[in-house]
Amino acid sequence: MTRLAMKLEQLPIDRARLARSLRLAGVKVGEGRYRVDGGREAHWVDLYTASIPRCDCADHLWRESVCKHILAALVREGHERVIREIGGLFAELTDHRTAA
Ligand SMILES: [Zn+2]
User: Fold this and answer.
1) pTM of the prediction?
2) How far is the CA of 92 from the centre of ligand 1 (A)?
3) Which residue did the predictor score with more confidence, 85 or 39?
């Protein structure tokens, strides 16, 4: 497991942010670097330079959260835990449908 992967195992992934991240457009601009569009303005994500992933949006800077832009970048990197969390989102939807 890489250093990043270990760090990410400890970071909370918010399902609402994850759902929103799936509607954003991400363009890879370098190794672990993404420009993420689709919100009010574009944001820049850097996954690997620091010890935790970074983004220049207020959600990340002020709340220190794993924001939707970082999640969008991790989806495009094929990050294992994020993919599994998306599976969790779909399972929730399916459960609601079968319960109704
Ligand atoms: Zn962000």
Assistant:
1) 0.86
2) 25
3) 85
What's the CA gap between 2 and 25, in Å, rounded? 26
Region 76-90: mean pLDDT is: 94
Q: What angle do CA 15, 16, 20 make, to 5 degrees?
A: 115
The answer to whether residue 6 is domain-embedded is no
Predicted confidence at residue 65, as pLDDT, reads 86
Total count of domains within the chain: 1
* Ligand 1 centroid to residue 71 C-alpha, Å: 8
CA of 98 to the centre of ligand 1 (A): 34
Q: Rounded to the nearest whole angstrom, what is the distance from the C-alpha of residue 57 to the centroid of ligand 1? A: 4
Ion ligand 1 — residues with CB < 5 Å: 43, 55, 57, 60, 67, 69
Q: pLDDT band at residue 6, thresholds of 50, 70 and 90?
A: low
Cα distances (Å, whole numbers) of residue 7 to 47, 67, 88, 96: 11, 15, 20, 32
CA of 70 to the centre of ligand 1 (A): 6
Residue 45's domain comprises 12-99
